[in-house]
Amino acid sequence: MDLFDGIVESEPRNIQLAPGAMLLSGFARPFEVPLIEAVHTIVARAPFRHLVTPGGHRMSVAMTNSGAVGWISDRTGYRYDAIDPHSGQPWPPMPAVFAEIAAQAAAKAGFADFHPEACLINRYEPGAKLSLHQDKDELDFRQPIVSVSLGLPATFLFGGLNRTDRTARYRLTHGDVVVWGGPARLAYHGVMPLPDGEHPLLGRQRINLTFRKTR
Ligand code: SIN
Ligand code: FE2
After folding, report:
1. The model scores a pTM over 0.90
2. How far is residue 189 from each of residues 15, 155, 157, 192, 201, measured CA to CA in Å?
3. 17-212: what fold?
4. Contact 181, 18 (CB under 8 A)
5. How far, in Å, from the CA of 90 to the mean position of ligand 1?
6. Is the predicted pLDDT of residue 125 greater than 70, yes or no?
7. Residue of minimum CA distance from atom 7 in ligand 1
8. 189 Cα to the center of ligand 2, angstroms
9. What interhelical angle do 32-45 and 96-108 show, nearest 10?
10. What residues does each domain of the chain span?
11. How far is CA 161 from CA 78, 131, 147, in A?
12. N- or C-end of the chain: fewer Cβ atoms within 10 A?
């Protein structure tokens, strides 16, 4: 079977997506309750909002952040900022359980001493998608990206260093963690429109936590 034509089902195992990129199936599942509780606490202070791209497009994914800085987009560009523009206050601090899981997952994928100071929280409702992009607003590309999936399953696209490189599709389910760094740090990736469904803990949504060392 051609890997690039099929969905690779996530079984309880680790799959290499590319040199430097690993899917750790179910890695975060044992922490689902504290992770979801922490998301609720953050969202109470910094609600999800649909950001506008520099091109004026409203993103279908709703976002918020926790940590010393948060990722934001507006008509002037993409950046990390210590202040939530909606509240004028600092972003809620990164919960200990977030930092712990991110560091453990990074270590498992071969990246020791990962201490992210930003966690972007993405909320996908049915139909929401994230177009192919690189995570490149960080200053330190020696550190990986750690991405935790919760809730409804999604199809993750993972490509190469050029936008036109072929992408492989992976099904990400509740508790899966993807880590990409080293030679894969600037790989293009995205998420296909979320199919509708009902998750026992999160209902009709997918929540993704993306941890970054930004500076
Ligand atoms: C992201 O690229 O920021 C999020 C990826 C995901 O939702 O799995
Ligand atoms: Fe990304």
Report:
1. yes
2. 16, 11, 5, 10, 26
3. Jelly Rolls (2.60.120)
4. no
5. 23
6. yes
7. 208
8. 6
9. 130
10. 17-212
11. 20, 15, 18
12. N
pLDDT surpasses 50 at 10 = no
**Ligand 1 contact, 156 CB (< 6 A):** yes
Write out pLDDT tens, residues 13-31.
Answer: 899 999 999 999 999 999 9
Point out the ligand 1 atom lying closest to the alpha carbon of residue 61.
Answer: 7
- Assess whether the C-beta atom of 210 lies below 6 angstroms from ligand 1: yes
Tokens 């996530």 label which residue?
A: 10
Greatest CA separation found in the chain? 52
- Cα torsion 81, 67, 100, 173 to 10°: value is -70
Whose tokens are 């179910």? That residue is 26
Whole-angstrom Cα distance, residue 60 to residue 81?
Answer: 21
Ligand positioned closest to the Cα atom of 191: 1
Q: Could you say which ligand is closest to the alpha carbon of residue 51?
A: 1
Question: Can you tell me whether residue 174 is helix, strand or coil?
Answer: coil
Place of tokens 């750690």: 146
Residue nearest to atom 3 of ligand 1 (CA): 210
DSSP 94: P
Q: Which two tokens stand for residue 59?
A: 């993103």
